[in-house]
Structures are given as C-alpha cells and as structure tokens.
Amino acid sequence: MSNLFKNKTVLITGHTGFKGSWLSMMLKNLGAEIVGLSNNTITTPSHYEHIKHIFSHDLRANIEEKHIFTKAIEKYNPKFIFHLAAQAIVSASYKDPFQTFSSNTIGTLNLLEALRLSLSKCTAVLITSDKSYKNLEINRGYHEEDVIGGIDPYSGSKGAAELIISSYAQSFFPSTARIRLGVARAGNVVGGGDWSDNRLIPDAIRAWKNNEILSIRNPKSTRPWQHVLDPLYGYIKLAENLHEKLIPNNSVFNFGPPISESAKVEDIADHLMDYLESFSWRRETEKEFFESKLLALDSTKANKMLNWKTLLDLDEVIEWTTAWYKNFYSQSGMKTSDFSHLQISQYFEKAQK
Ligand SMILES: NC(=O)c1ccc[n+]([C@@H]2O[C@H](COP(=O)([O-])OP(=O)(O)OC[C@H]3O[C@@H](n4cnc5c(N)ncnc54)[C@H](O)[C@@H]3O)[C@@H](O)[C@H]2O)c1
User: Fold this and answer.
1) SS3 helix, strand, coil % of the chain, rounded to 5?
2) Going by DSSP bridges, is the β-strand pair 189-190/213-216 parallel, antiparallel, or unpaired?
C-alpha cells in the first residue's frame, strides 16, 4: 500500500461517526497520525468508542463555529483533511432542517474559508453525497456533470454545500494553489459499526438483536449499496492522486458500485435473512416521507482516473457487514477493534491483488 500517509498528520472531521471511524482506522493502518474533530459521539453503541485509542488528538468542536478550522489547521498543520462531519440522516433533516443546513453548509464554508486564509500546503477531500444530484428518477447512473439539486433538507444541504465548494474552488484554488481540493460523492454505505437511526442495516440489526420484525419504509427504492471500506478507499486514492498532482485540482468523483449491483431495499432485507438467523421484515404502513426511489452513480471517472472500483460484491457486502455485528454481539467474539482491523487488512489484501 501507499507510503504517502506514513507519519503525516491527517485531520478527519466526523471521526466519531460511522464512516469517519473506519476511515481513521484505515489511515492509521497506513501510518498516519490522526487528528479527529467532531462535536459528539452520536450513537450508543459506537464504533468510535472501541477504536478511540488510535487518535493522536481527539477534538470536540462544532464545525458551525467560524474559527474552529482556523485554529485546528494552525495548531496541527495537517497535510491531509477528510471532511465528513455532517448531519447525515434524511429523516433527522425533516425534524431539524435548520440544524442540517447549518452543519452541512456553514460547516463546509468554515473549512473552505480556513483553507483560503491558511498559509499551509494541504490536500482536502470533501465528502458530499449521491443525494447532491437533482433527482431526475432516471434509469442511468448520475455522472459528475449532472445537475446538483436536492428535495429533502438533507439532500438540499448537500447540494448547497456543493455550490459553496464549487465557488471556492473556482475562485480561490486554481490548479497551482497550495490547496489541493477534491469532492467525493458516494451512495448508501453499509458495514459494521453503524447504529444510526432510520438506516436499513442498523435498523435490521436492532430488530434482529431484539427478536422483532423490522418495518421497512420504501422497500421498492433502489440504492447503490456498497461496503463502507470501498468508498473510503476511493477517498484515500482521491487524496493521493490530488497530492501527487496526477489529476486536476478541484476534481469531483462518484464512488459507487456498478449499476448491476444496485438493489432494492427489499432485496437487501431478504438477503440479510441468509446471514442473520431469525431475522424478518415487513412493509411499513405509516405515511412515508419523500426519498428518491432510484439512485445510482456512474463511477466510470473514478475507474479510469483513480483506478478505483468496488472490491466487494453485494453478497460480500452483506457477509462482511453481518459478520461484524455477529462478532460484536457474540460472548466469545474478538475484541471489536481487532475485528475491524482484520476486515481492513483483508480489504487491503484484496486491493493489492
Ligand atoms: N452513511 C452513508 O450511507 C452516507 C452516504 C452518502 C454520504 N454520506 C456522507 O458521509 C459523511 C459521513 O457519514 P456517516 O454515515 O459517517 O455519518 P454519521 O452520522 O455516522 O457521522 C456524522 C459525524 O459528523 C459529526 N458532526 C455532525 N455535525 C457536526 C457538527 N456540527 N460539528 C462537528 N461534528 C459534527 C458527528 O459527531 C459524527 O462524527 C457525511 O458527510 C454524510 O453526509 C454518508
């Protein structure tokens, strides 16, 4: 694997969350010194709680506060920044749209402004979403030039963050800038260690654990399911390629599975029954809130320019995910951090083949 991150300081926002905790572990495995910045530990249980020993600095701060990033960049001088901190749940965005817009747009703006004013050299990867795209309910995967939009507040906030990033990128970070910037859009990500509300896998795990039947809203919705390690590996490759100037500054990339791997929510729920004994589900009868029915990403650009593709097929996605939770809840299982470490090692082995 790449030596680029060895002994380099990497700032990861959202490190207490699902994806941030896994990304922190992957980069730690590559030798980086990780500075984590988040406001809270957001779920109980929490993957982060089991891996928090890996952080060189573990900061609690609200990214909506203007000078947070200026101070962190001045103090730790990170060579790489991965910005994942966000209010990331669609249902929560209906309950508190203001907070969702505030963290997802002002938080991003604060980071960009701090980068604009800083004197350091840094490569930053900003994580938005497949939901940034204006939803056209089309039968092809979205590609990077498609129009940005977003109906629900979460999607709107991610679309708005994209406009802010694009404006800063074009106005302040030309190809010669000391700041190298990339945007990563990924879709529905699953894996061990997620206990968020209103996401299929955590909801299924809770139902399975409590011997309950899972109610699913929108079982016919199609999503580009992928294991969490796949897009995170893409983010790492994006950072490497930006840093090495192998791709243009301010590049935007989709990270999704092949369209053939897209599956309906109900297919995933059925598939879970192969691996989780006694798991069952039924269709939610309550009124559904708006969520796009069909979302798929065209990741040809990442395939070609970053030599990236998903390494786990749909069956492996379900197998690796359920194996993680089974180990977590088993009396005789491995230590959680060791099990996560094992999956990362297995993933890196696949990546080297
Ligand atoms: N999980 C997915 O399927 C998915 C899909 C597409 C995009 N994303 C994006 O990836 C990123 C990470 O998603 P996740 O699933 O790990 O989310 P998560 O909800 O598990 O974690 C969110 C993290 O952001 C932090 N955070 C939230 N608001 C903050 C604030 N105001 N100040 C400081 N920290 C704050 C939380 O403390 C937490 O560490 C998000 O930007 C999300 O929008 C996730």
Assistant:
1) 45, 15, 40
2) unpaired
Which residues surround ligand 1 with Cβ inside 6 Å?
A: 14, 16-20, 38-40, 42, 62-64, 84-88, 103, 107, 127, 129, 186-189, 196
Quote the pLDDT of residue 20. 98
How is residue 135 annotated by DSSP?
P
Burial class (CB in 10 A: 0-12, 13-18, 19+), 341: middle
Contact indicator for 122, 78 with CB cutoff of 8 Å: yes
pTM: 0.97
Instruction: Report residue 293: phi and psi, to 5°.
Output: -85, -30
Among 127, 144, 169, 162, which Cα is nearest to 254's?
Answer: 144
pLDDT at 140: 87
- Report the alpha-carbon distance of residue 153 to residue 151 in Å, rounded: 6
- Ligand 1: centre distance to CA 14 (Å): 6
For residue 187, the model assigns a pLDDT of 85
Side chain identity, residue 43: T
pLDDT at 290: 60
| Cβ–Cβ under 8 Å, residues 152 and 289 | yes
Show the domains of the chain with their CATH numbers. 9-352 (3.40.50.720)
Q: For each successive 10 residues of the chain (353 residues), what is the average pLDDT? A: 93 98 98 97 92 97 96 97 96 96 98 95 96 87 94 96 97 90 94 94 96 91 91 98 96 93 91 95 74 78 97 96 97 96 98 92
DSSP string, 279-324: -EEEE--SPPPP--SB--B--HHHHHHH-----S-HHHHHHHHHHH
